[in-house]
Recover the amino acids of this structure.
């Protein structure tokens, strides 16, 4: 039987009395790379925040390693679960090394200095994300791709076996997108990190994830392998756009949007 490390049961939550996630059941299995997809406003980020314990549910519960998250200390949750939020502006002029070192906070007592194990975890996290050469640079001077790698490095320094990521490749160029997802796949395969990743890029999700969960209107509408979830009919209904789906790398589905305007344009006129 496959072990579940993070689970939502009948989860309902939202903001200011407005329900955004409406009775969702989700399970992340140990060692799994799980993708969460769906259109804007479908509840993906809200669900991720609730799974991370950063948003209180109005009904249902979140279980971490079988224990109700509401019964756990924040420090214990942070040791077991690391979160990479959507790309945001760098906070103040901390250096890269200082940001990554913040990942060790759950392992240190109040005012306790870093020890050899902490330094080793920080150095390894920076090495895995290739940000070591940037250690003394203020994060305010980094590109979006560099800063995203720093945020991931901070999560790695936590040494948490479960990682939740919200659009880790958003706003990045194609080279950095592949770099980020290659890193996540390596962490998943080589270090057995259990990963739940929100992605708007269906082709990245299809190529890298073991399983996909699709959401719409705050509910799960489909889950299964990328080939089972990413059908032309379902994707068209979810996103309101006609698509063609063909076999891509490794036989995984490759999604291409169709455009009536481009199809009608004379050859050479498409911009």
């Amino acid at each position: 039987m496959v072990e579940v490390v993070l689970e939502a049961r009948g989860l309902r939550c939202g903001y200011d009395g407005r329900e955004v996630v409406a009775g969702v059941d989700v399970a992340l299995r140990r060692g799994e790379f799980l993708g969460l997809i769906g259109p804007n406003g479908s509840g993906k980020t809200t669900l991720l925040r609730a799974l991370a314990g950063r948003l209180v549910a109005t009904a249902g519960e979140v279980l971490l390693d079988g224990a109700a998250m509401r019964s756990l200390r924040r420090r214990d949750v942070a040791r077991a679960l690391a979160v990479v939020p959507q790309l945001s502006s760098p906070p103040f002029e901390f250096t890269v090394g200082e940001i990554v070192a913040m990942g060790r906070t759950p392992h240190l007592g109040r005012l306790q200095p870093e020890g050899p194990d902490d330094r080793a975890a920080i150095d390894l996290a920076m090495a895995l994300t290739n940000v070591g050469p940037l250690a003394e640079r203020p994060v305010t001077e980094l590109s979006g791709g560099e800063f995203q790698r720093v945020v991931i490095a901070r999560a790695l320094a936590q040494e948490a076996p479960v990682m939740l990521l919200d659009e880790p490749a958003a706003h990045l160029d194609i080279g950095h997108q592949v770099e980020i997802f290659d890193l996540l796949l390596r962490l998943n395969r080589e270090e057995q990190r259990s990963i739940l990743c929100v992605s708007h890029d269906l082709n990245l999700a299809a190529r890298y994830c073991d399983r996909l969960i699709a959401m719409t209107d705050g509910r799960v509408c489909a889950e299964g392998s990328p080939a089972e979830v990413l059908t032309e009919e379902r994707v068209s209904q979810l996103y309101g756009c006609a698509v063609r789906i063909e076999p891509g790398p490794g036989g995984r589905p490759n999604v291409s949007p169709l455009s009536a305007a481009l199809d009608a344009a004379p050859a050479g006129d498409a911009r």
Observations:
- Residues 4-264 form a domain with the Rossmann fold fold (CATH 3.40.50.300).
- The chain has a mean pLDDT of 90.
- DSSP finds ten helices and twelve strands in the chain.
